[in-house]
Specification:
There is one protein chain. The protein is an alpha+beta fold. It has helices at about 15-30, 115-125, 155-160, 170-190, 225-230; strands at about 40-45, 65-70, 80, 100-105, 130, 135-140, 145-150, 150-155, 200, 205-210, 235-240, 255, 260-265, 270-275, 280-285, 305-310. Strands 1, 3, 4, 6, 9, 10, 11, 14 and 16 form a 9-stranded antiparallel beta sheet that branches. Strands 2-13-12-15 form a 4-stranded mixed beta sheet, with no helix packed on it. Strand 12 (about 255) and strand 13 form a beta hairpin. It is globular and about 50 Å long.
């Protein structure tokens, strides 16, 4: 990805970047029961015109149905049709793109677990350069936005050409390939013209942990309707890069239907996608705090965190 050099840009040498990455990795590994794969997700938002969004989702209770469990594999798509809400009538319709039928779908066949592992390592390297003070950290490779403390920095401006020491050409090629496959899957499932779909900004990696929220951006658990909050959104997809019940606790994705709550358990390589209207009101469980497996090892100075990583 090209970068721009500006006179007011702060550049960091490759040794400095590598030290930050190693320091972040060492801090995670210092707590031996913490698993570095935990809690990573990639989120994509598709529309007919483009846009921008955050997911704000709420605590879990009353889950009555599990659509798919972490321990099972979904080689073929599971598609659940729901009636479209009236949200789409409030915005300009785009033939071949605006939802004519609505629903949600889950598949484990679009992205392999090996590819998910590569993307997870890519995300961990990028997030090691910063990270939120609260429970949710964001890395957006399109805009360069990276959570750092209570704000965001642009990694391409901040690190300049040295960012090549963090992300390789192969990383970006896989990233683009996965995005394209997910977009084509959404188009095929909902009977759309793939060329009429536009990927919104941001498409970001999200790492969620049990740290107390410091800003509203950290409060990921509130109920949310993408189309109501940001009118340009028509479809939402999530690619999980870690495993529920293995790498983290909590963090399940919940569709809040009138008759029941229906949940998706994260599994590395699993893609979940849905139309973005009120028909798919949703939330995410709060992630659970990690606990030591042995009473003999309990470093008092370590703050125990449980993380969930996903690509939105």
């Amino acid at each position: 990805m090209p970068t721009q050099r500006r006179s007011n840009v702060k550049f960091v040498d490759s040794n400095g970047i590598e030290k930050k990455i190693k320091r972040g990795t060492a801090q995670r590994q210092a707590v031996w029961w913490w698993r570095p794969q935990a809690g990573l997700l990639l989120l994509s938002l598709l529309s007919c015109v483009g846009g921008l969004a955050w997911l704000y989702l709420t605590p879990d209770d009353g889950i009555t149905e599990t659509l798919v469990r972490q321990g099972e594999t979904v080689p073929e798509q599971r598609v659940y049709q729901v009636s479209c809400s009236e949200d789409y009538d409030n915005y300009k319709r785009y033939p071949g793109c605006t939802p004519q039928k609505c629903g949600r779908a889950i598949t484990d066949s679009v992205v392999s677990r090996e590819e998910a592992a590569i993307l997870r390592r890519l995300a961990e390297r990028g997030l090691s350069l910063g990270g939120s003070d609260g429970g949710a950290s964001i890395l957006d490779l399109h805009s360069g936005a990276l959570s750092m403390g209570k704000q965001f920095v642009n990694i391409y401006r901040y690190f300049g050409e040295q960012i090549k020491d963090v992300f390789s050409k192969e990383d970006f090629e896989l990233y683009r390939s996965v995005r394209q496959r997910i977009q084509e899957t959404i188009a095929q499932t909902f009977g759309l013209d793939s060329s009429r779909l536009y990927l919104t900004n941001p498409t970001f990696f999200s790492r969620i942990n049990s740290t107390l929220a410091k800003t509203t951006h950290d409060e990921y658990w509130h109920p949310h309707i993408d189309k109501v909050t940001y009118g340009s959104f028509d479809y939402t997809s999530l690619l999980y890069l870690s495993d529920y019940g293995v790498d983290f606790g909590g963090g399940r994705f919940i569709f809040m239907d009138t008759s029941a709550n229906r949940t998706v358990e994260p599994r590395a390589g699993r893609v979940s996608f849905f139309t973005s209207g009120t028909e798919n009101l949703h939330r995410v469980e709060k992630t659970l705090q990690c606990r030591p497996r042995s009473k003999a090892i309990n470093p008092p100075a370590q703050k125990l965190l449980q993380k969930r990583l996903t690509l939105f």
